[in-house]
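diguanylate cyclase
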Amino acid sequence: MVAALWFALLLEQGRNRAAVERDAHNEAANLARAFEEHVVRIFHDVNAALLLLRQAWGEERSSFEQMVRIIQKADGEALLVQIAVIGADGLLAYSNLDPDAEPVDLSDREHFQVHRESKEDNLFISKPILGRVSGRYSIQVTRPLLNELGGFIGVLVISLSPDYFSRFFGSVDLGRSGSISLVGTDGVFRARGSDSRLDTDSIGTRVPPDRPFLQPDAPTSGMYEADSTIDGIRRFVSYRLLPGYSMVVAVTKAVEEVFAEHERRWLRYRLGAGLVSLLLLAGAGWLARSLQLQRRFKHQLLEQQRRLLYVNDSLRILNDIATQPDGELAARLHLALALGCRHLGVEFGIVSRVSGDRYRVECCFVPPTVALKAGDEFALARTYCSITLGARDLVTIEHMSHSEYAGHPCFEAFRLEAYFGIPIKVNGAVYGTLNFSSTQPHSRVFDSSDREFLRLLARWVGTVIAEERTHNELKTLATTDALTGAMNRGSFVTEAEQEIGRARRYQQPLSLLLLDLDYFKRVNDSYGHSAGDEVLKAVAEFSRETLRTNDRFARIGGEEFAALLPYTAAAEAMEVGERLRTRIAAAPVQTAEQRISVTISVGITELVDDDDFNTLYNRADAALYRAKHQGRNRVVGDPAAPSDLAPPGSEVLTTH
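Predicted structure tokens:
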């Protein structure tokens, strides 16, 4: 154990050191990216100013000086040291510091010589030099002045102060030995900040030529570790090459400072591990004592084994209940509640449904003398399940009168001493509770196996309720028309065939009504399909209200509906059809925008001995066709139906 402790400690120390180094690299890289954007923005703005000044130089002197004042005001004295013009002869032609100053020979300056020798119109950034007019160190950012033929006529200069970059240095904390530098690709420092201040001593010095960013094939950004040539401190260096400019920004962090806190922390951990090692060695002396204690706990272990066998038996029974094929939900829940009562040694088991502040008994297992049944409702606040739902987890109370809930209304009303409840979730939402209770305090300790058993039982109850709900929803979708809520054609045909067989077997009358909306296409064309849907739903609702509960009503297709009337002869069916026709004609449908009046045509026939559903349907359909042909908004019977459909002397009874 001691060896494992030290192995794990050293392994974790190495992983932590690698994480600290990685974080330092990431922080330095992010700062380098920010410094890069800062410097690029400065050079971009200075380059734009040079282009504007060069254009103004060719105009009147007053225009050029006005442009100089604008740029000075925009960039400020902290950035700009001087704006100057050098003539083609190398003499100072203009300086904003002293416009009337005597000419100064600047032909030996690198930036002048570069532009004089080059045929290209390029931006040039010089090494820091001491100004002969300003008397200050500055970085010269220059562009050539060209005549109309492209010939060299001088150099336009904006001198930048290295001190300006100290603003960025002062905004970050890299530790006492960290630094941020601006270095040319020639290896010369343009600016360097260290310890949150500008390091003026390093300006103009060179970095060693072996640095990665000075190599010809150097990537645009990178990270390396090296000793500083300025102060000899070893540092992590993150650099980025400035796109479009011969400059590099570099952010450094001292290796010693990066790992300082890490080393202090792990010194404490090593001291702690040493102490733990001593304790482990001392613990070996107590090993013999533990063997003696083992014998003492042997009896308890055997008791736990017997308890485990009991739990396994409960799980086996629950599995049998769960795998019962096609069992009724109520029966399966009743068996599960009986199992829970046996397992816990209590008398009451309930599956409840909670809606708002109401508690409803969905299924219960109680003694025969107790008047509690499915469907009974209570105020949720008067049940122990309010505690369970408030806790959102399993609640166990083994002796209620000695608990904090002794004054609960449920205890006052029913004197239930033991209570175990857990929320039931169906499809992720709280459905109600599974709870067990007893009038006596719990006779044994409620242990972890009991907890897991109740959690498993609650999950199973939630699952079977969800399955039952899904089954009912699928059954409804399979048998119901989605728009009107009426039975769909397939389900109607199935039930009609069953009713035909039943009517023939018991020699009972049965009639079929087919009803169709008159001129329904006009409704869709005039008011839109959404209004047509409202009309169909209203007609279906009127029809259900008029028909009996044992009548079958369905939407056959489009605007056509059917009603099957068991125990109904043709004459009675004619009266029903007339009530439907009158009701619909007298009740215009109120849609979102207007009231729409509709009428229906109805065809009726009655079952005869040899009829199947198709024969019965075709006769009713023929009667419906005649109702349409005779002018619509009427009820027409089938002349081939039994004679009581029409009075003596007439072929068919028609009402309109």
